[in-house]
Sequence to fold (307 residues):
Amino acid sequence: MDQERGMGIGDTESLLDCIVIGAGPGGLQACIHLGRYNFRVILFHRPGGRTWHAKRIENYLSHRIISGPDLLETGLAQAESFGVTVEQAKVERVSVRERHFEVQAAGKMYRTRFVIAASGARESLAPFKNLPRFFGKSYFTCMICDGYRTTGKKLLLIDRTINGVRLSIGMKQVFTSDVTFLAHGFSLTPQYASLLEEEGIGYCEGRPEELIGEEILEGVRLADGLTIPCEVIMGWGGISLNDDYLEGLSLERDAEGFKILTSSTGESSIPGLFVLGALRQGHSQAIISAGQGAEAAIEISTRIVEL
Fold:
């Protein structure tokens, strides 16, 4: 162990082994692995995030059902039990120096050998009245994550693009026979309308304005006053990446300039900067992000001890 690593972890002049940004499943799993190597690690985290808002996670190994808050609180305590320092502060900037990184947060500058960016994304939800009341309970935006929750129920699928036709067919094949497709703000060509009819999928057009119901979703009211009954909705939504602190870095991104490209171990085009979860290409479910965190941490530990 070199002299710098022997200095106190609260000393921002010393060189840390790794700084992890984001306490979602990926960041926490990375911290758990790194902490078990007795490395000097700081985790910067701010409450919230998409996993935090998940009410029922049903496909995470060893948990038949667990809420997002329970998963993250348990993981945070586990990371701290292995000596990881947790700071509730916003990271403002990551800079690359000759042989290390500088991370600015809460008015301080930290120096570290490696950085793991695992700060995730935030939801961009449709502007429907009462949507927050049902989001995550009966209004979903991801077939992979929550399609199972629609099993055997009366489903309304809302999409602003032709992709909704394909998704409607997929939902019927896998989850429920009672599917209606609502083309939000556009009309299908006769070819696609006929395809839905052949598949036994209902079809309508309009602009949704309000989700109806108190505790239980009853339907959707359109701008023209028409009400479409349903028990669950697979609706549209988007994400914005929490990556402001990476601005100014020459990171390779996908063709849309959105997601960050990485190697199989999660390393970005900048050596030593690893990227997990929603920030990188690919699926970003909790269980996948956790695996990415473990992969990145093992790669970092191998380099530190020069195995």
Summary: The chain has two domains: 4-120+242-305, 124-237. Helices lie at 25-35, 68-81, 131-134, 143-146, 163-174, 190-198, 286-305. Residues 241 and 258 are 8 Å apart (CA to CA).
